[in-house]
Amino acid sequence: MDEFWVFGYGSLMWNPGFDYEMRLGARAHGYRRSLCVRSFVHRGTPERPGLVLGLDRGGSCRGVAFRVAEAKREAVLDYLRQRELVTHVYLERHLPLLLEDGRQVKAVGYVVDRGHPQYAGALEVEEAARIVHVSRGQSGPNHAYVANTVAHLKDMGIRDHWLEGVAACVAALQARTALA
């Protein structure tokens, strides 16, 4: 049987929540990390949705691949489906990955459903920053989610210039609000 791999591009990278045998840097071609999912609960409300990460079409995305023991495949899939498919804004896919050691594998990954009402589309940095700046949900302020994500990515040696631009713009908005 083929090896079972899982691809993480957001919080799954530093907080997978499941046991794995190996963790390697990986790149998914044809997809990019994006604040393209409206959050109505964790980082926003129905009246003022926040934004959370999705894996959207286009470009490439550096992330992490986890190899999971065959004996744990079903338990990990059950866990991931409960975590990622709550509102069905993500679609479970088998993504081709290039691992940092040069191997090519297929991995389970969750990509955004562009037809879902929570899909926010491709936003400009400033527009995304304005939304993130004012949104708050059950898990806290949206700006904390973005800042935490950028910090974790930097710690892992992953640069995401668009997301870093959103974080910088949010910080500038916060500074202006504090002075007002």
3D architecture notes:
The chain has 180 residues and is α+β, with helices and mostly antiparallel strands. It has a single domain (4-179), classed as Gamma-glutamyl cyclotransferase-like (Hypothetical upf0131 protein ytfp, Roll), CATH 3.10.490. Helix content is 31%, strand content 36%. It has four helices and seven strands, in the order βββαββαββαα. The strands form two sheets. Strands 1-3-2-4-5 form a five-stranded antiparallel sheet. Helix 2 (125-134) crosses helix 4 (161-179) and helix 3 packs across helix 4. It is globular, with a radius of gyration of 16 Å. 37% of the residues are buried. The mean pLDDT is 95.
How many domains?
A: 1
The radius of gyration computed from the alpha-carbon positions, rounded to a whole number of angstroms, is 16 Å
Output the number of helix runs.
4
- What is the CATH-assigned architecture? Roll
Which stretches of 5+ consecutive residues score pLDDT under 50?
none
- Name the strands of the widest sheet in spatial order: 1-3-2-4-5
CATH class: Alpha Beta
Give the distance, in angstroms, between the N- and C-terminal Cα atoms.
61 Å
Summed over residues and divided by their number, the pLDDT gives a mean of 95
Helical amount = 25-40%
